[in-house]
Amino acid sequence: MPWTLSASDMVTPGSPGPPPTEPTDSKQAEQPLLDGAPSSASLDTLIQHLVPTADYYPEKAYIFTFLLSSRLFIEPQELLARVCRLCIEQQQLDKPVLDKARVRKFGPKLLQLLAEWTETFPRDFQEESAIGPVKDVVGRIAPCDETYRRRLHQLLQALHQKLAALGPVPESLLGSDKPISYRTKPPASIHRELLSICSDPYVLAQQLTHVELARLRHIGPEEFVQAFVNKDPLASTKPCFSDKTKNLEAYVKWFNRLCYLVATEICMPSKKKRRAQVIEFLIDVARECFNIGNFNSLMAIVSGMNMSPVSRLKKTWAKVKTAKFFILEHQMDPTGNFCNYRTALRGAAHRSLTAHSSREKIVIPFFSLLIKDIYFLNEGCANRLPNGHINFEKFLELAKQVGEFITWKQVECPFEQDPSITHYLYTAPVFSEDGLYLASYESESPENHTEKERWKSLRSSILGKT
After folding, report:
1. Which of 24, 69, 239, 282 has the fewest CB atoms inside 10 Å of its own CB, making it the most exposed?
2. Top-tier CATH class for 171-464
3. CATH no. of 36-166
4. What is the domain partition of the chain in residue ranges?
5. Using one digit for the tens of pLDDT, what is the confidence trace for 418-456?
6. How far apart are CA 195 and CA 428, in angstroms?
7. How far is C-alpha 299 from the chain's CA centre?
8. How many helices (H) and strands (E) does the chain have?
9. Which residue, among 134, 140, 54, has the nearest Cα to 95 in the 3D structure?
10. Is the pTM of this model over 0.85?
11. CA–CA distance from 243 to each of 78, 190, 248, 382, 449 (Å)?
12. Are 7 and 261 in contact (CB under 8 A)?
């Protein structure tokens, strides 16, 4: 059923040891999970682990994990300013005479950290004021090597390009989210059928993959954290996350739209034979989505077919060869916490890792289940331990799940886009749930008292009949 959601490396990561950290009373805080990273620590200690020195650079996994989770405890812009201040203090960049040898060892590491940060979390730099501390610290090391200033300029150019690409979702991707009511004689725009736009299930599966990847590209990793954020009781400030999960929410709306589009396409034809043809076509589309690795469209199609207005069309389903549909239902069976789907997803993920072509790299997970997994991970483990330390071990697991998704969403779609098909997927009107029921009852008469009463009520409310 539809679901509801209320740069290449400049240096080699690694180091002979961690930077200085504050002492801790907790033995658990001394248990390393990454090179020099604690399983739990104070926010100050974790920030210190992020700051590079002449002889230290944090592991890539640590950088991603901390930058992802830190926004629960400190606003990104404040974190960036603190990192820059620590760099200036530790490298004594405020002194009139700099240790050039040390700065030349430190400079590339600082620029690498900035490159990783701007590449993975570009929206942290949307405010122009966020760039100020960065320009300040790089300006202090530039006299030791003028290439630092040039590399920062290149980094900022790449950042602006990335932010432009991640700007507001294009109008062409918005479509129509509002379902329409059923009418006895639908207007011509509704009368248009998917089969008249595309009759090849493989082509439609490819176009659905285009739509999925285009929408996924706008979702930043930080949205997965911000979707479940609560005010941290020990935070000095309250991060403002309003309007920062809109791309994630828009993707959920797309899933719901596809469910309703599938149900509308099935319920709309007046002839039983045509409805059966549409069902068989959509089953083939779902199977092609499975083969491609597009599990989100697959689940939306299966969910649309399982909506009550569709599943009750017994005479229609009697004309459908359902063996292939049952196989797909088995793959997406929720039993055992979607055990079959998770096995198929692991297979697709393995194929992606060893792929030699973009076609084999495609992995589009069933999105609402991914959100559910992250939600329960967030709910099942505390952000802070009883001693007030941040539970970094929890966020390592969170980063693992989000990081895998970020890798998948960056795959370039290898299929040629057909604008006429994608336009239809975005803009074709879909019936509301009541509209679907009414269309279903008019296709196949109500079978029991409950259905008859509902039909009467719907006809009265939607069609204005008594």
Report:
1. 24
2. mainly alpha
3. 1.20.870
4. 36-166, 171-464
5. 999 999 999 999 999 998 999 999 999 998 888 888 888
6. 13
7. 16
8. 24, 4
9. 140
10. no
11. 19, 33, 11, 25, 46
12. no
